[in-house]
Task: inverse folding
């Protein structure tokens, strides 16, 4: 069985300088980039992933997910609007190693990468199963939102799931700690 890395929403709007920045986002982008430089290199001691994929917030008109007066629970400032620089991968992260990108949230809120689809319309869970993936590592932005939702869905879809906390950035300390507790309770390994 195969092992996958899912890189969640490492986009300009979620990093410093973006419309919805998470402290440490740019550093996480650079650290993930360093890992991706060696992901094929089992002999060099790098992480051994059979496939590496990314998710992207990909909003066209997500309804009340965007708000001019966001509550930062269910509504947020405009972010990751299709066609803007904010929706692009952060420049510290080279997107070339990705085997596939899964886009989520065109017309509704979408936190989990498992809500995402390829440009051809294939769902993340189906794509992973078609490649005999049984183990999934999750990293990216934000630990307490989209990383959390992606890891929970990964576990519920039957993948052995691990969150790589050193390669994540969270919005707030309390909500990140609560998310990690919830993930652990759901059977997700916290590394």
Result:
């Amino acid at each position: 069985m195969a092992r996958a890395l899912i890189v969640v929403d490492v986009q300009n709007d979620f990093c410093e300088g973006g419309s919805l920045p998470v402290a440490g986002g740019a550093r996480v982008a650079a650290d993930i980039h360093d890992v991706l430089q060696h992901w094929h290199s089992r002999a060099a001691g790098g992480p051994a992933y059979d496939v590496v994929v990314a998710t992207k917030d990909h909003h066209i008109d997500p309804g009340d997910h965007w708000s001019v007066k966001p509550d930062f629970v269910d509504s947020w400032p405009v972010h990751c609007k299709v066609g803007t620089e904010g929706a692009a991968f952060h420049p510290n992260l080279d997107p070339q190693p990705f085997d596939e990108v899964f886009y989520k949230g065109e017309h509704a809120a979408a936190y989990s990468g498992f809500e995402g689809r390829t440009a051809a319309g294939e769902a993340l869970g189906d794509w992973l199963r078609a490649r005999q993936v049984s183990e999934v590592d999750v990293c990216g932005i934000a630990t307490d939102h989209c990383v959390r939702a992606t890891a929970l869905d990964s576990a519920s879809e039957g993948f052995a799931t691990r969150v790589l906390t050193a390669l994540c950035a969270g919005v707030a300390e309390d909500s990140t700690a609560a998310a990690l507790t919830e993930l652990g309770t759901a059977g997700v390994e916290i590394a």
